[in-house]
Write a structure and sequence with these properties.
Structural class: mainly alpha
Strand content: under 5%
Number of strands: 0
Helix content: 55-70%
Largest sheet: none
CATH architecture of one domain: Up-down Bundle
Distance between the termini: 127 Å
Shape: elongated
Radius of gyration: 27 Å
Number of helices: 9
Order of helices and strands: HHHHHHHHH
Length: about 280
C-alpha cells in the first residue's frame, strides 16, 4: 500500500528516462549527449590550452633539431600533400569505371564498395582541405617561420597571406583525412595508415612551418570530417570498404584490357598503313 506523499510513483516515471542513458550527460564518455556548442567550446579552449603550454617548447625543440633529421621530415611531410591522394584516387576511380564497363569476373558488390571507398578518399581530402584553407586564411594566425619573434597568439584576421595562414594546418588536415579514409576502407591496416597520417601531420611543427596546436587542430578536423562523411555514405547504402584482393584484381584486369586495346589499335594502324602504301615491285 502506498502512502500519500510517497515518491514511489515519481521513481517509476523516472526509470524509463534513466534507462535510456549510459551515464551522466556531462561525462566525456557520452559525447553524443553534448550539444554542438558545448563540443565547440571544449575544443576551442582545449586548443588554446595546448597553444599556451606546448607551442613555444615544441618550437624550441624544432629549432634544435639536427639538419639531417629535418631533411627526413620533409619527405615525411609530403604525405600531407593533397595531390597524392587526390591524383591516385581519381586515377583509380577512372580504372574502376573502365573495368565496370567490361565483362569481368569480379564481384559487382566488391567493385561498388571499391568505388565508394575511392569517393570517400577523394571527397574527404578535397573538402576538408578546402575547409582548412578557407579557415586558416580567415583566422590569420602567424606562422612560426614568418618571423623569428612571432608570438604564439599573434593574429591578423582575414590577412589572406601565406605567412599568416597557420591555423589549422592544411597538410595535417589532408594527411589525417587521407589516413582516416584509408583506415576505414582497409580496417586490417588501420593502425599503419593512422600512424603515418599523424606522423606526417606533426612533422609540420618540427619543420617550424606550423605551431603544434595548428597541427593538432588539423588532425581533429581531418578525422572528424572523414568520419562524418563515412557515416553519411553508409546511411545512404554505400559501403566504402575494400574487400581483400579486389584492388589487385581490378588493376590486373585493367592492365590486360588496356594491353588488348593497345594491340588492336597497333594492328589497325599497321594494316591501314600497309594498305595505303603497298610494297613496290622493283623487278
Amino acid at each position: 500500500m502506498k502512502h500519500v506523499g510517497s515518491n514511489d510513483g515519481l521513481q517509476d516515471r523516472a526509470e524509463p528516462v534513466a534507462a535510456g542513458l549510459t551515464g551522466p550527460v556531462w561525462l566525456p564518455g557520452n559525447p553524443a549527449a553534448q550539444s554542438r556548442t558545448s563540443i565547440l567550446v571544449a575544443l576551442t579552449l582545449g586548443m588554446l590550452l595546448v597553444a599556451v603550454i606546448a607551442d613555444a617548447p615544441i618550437r624550441a625543440l624544432a629549432q634544435s633539431l639536427d639538419p639531417s633529421l629535418k631533411i627526413t621530415l620533409r619527405y615525411v611531410t609530403g604525405f600531407g600533400n593533397s595531390a597524392w591522394p587526390l591524383g591516385i584516387g581519381l586515377a583509380l576511380l577512372g580504372v574502376v569505371w573502365f573495368v565496370r564497363r567490361q565483362t569481368t569476373p569480379i564481384n559487382p558488390a566488391n567493385l561498388q564498395s571499391l568505388r565508394s571507398a575511392l569517393i570517400l578518399l577523394v571527397a574527404s581530402v578535397a573538402l576538408s582541405g578546402f575547409l582548412a584553407s578557407l579557415s586558416k586564411h580567415i583566422i590569420g594566425r602567424i606562422r612560426p617561420s614568418t618571423d623569428a619573434d612571432a608570438q604564439v597568439l599573434e593574429f591578423w584576421f582575414m590577412a589572406f597571406k601565406s605567412g599568416w595562414a597557420a591555423f589549422p594546418s592544411g597538410h595535417a588536415t589532408t594527411a589525417t583525412a587521407a589516413a582516416m579514409a584509408l583506415a576505414l576502407c582497409f580496417p586490417r591496416h588501420a593502425w599503419a595508415f593512422l600512424s603515418i597520417g599523424v606522423t606526417a601531420s606533426l612533422s609540420r611543427a618540427l619543420l617550424e612551418v606550423h605551431w603544434f596546436s595548428d597541427c593538432l587542430a588539423g588532425v581533429v578536423l581531418g578525422a572528424w570530417f572523414t568520419v562524418v562523411m563515412h557515416r553519411r555514405m553508409v546511411a545512404r547504402g554505400h559501403l566504402p570498404q575494400v574487400a581483400p584482393g579486389t584492388l589487385g584484381l581490378v588493376l590486373t584486369q585493367a592492365a590486360v584490357e588496356f594491353s588488348r586495346i593497345a594491340a588492336v589499335a597497333a594492328t589497325t594502324i599497321w594494316t591501314r598503313a600497309t594498305h595505303r602504301n603497298p610494297p613496290v615491285d622493283r623487278r
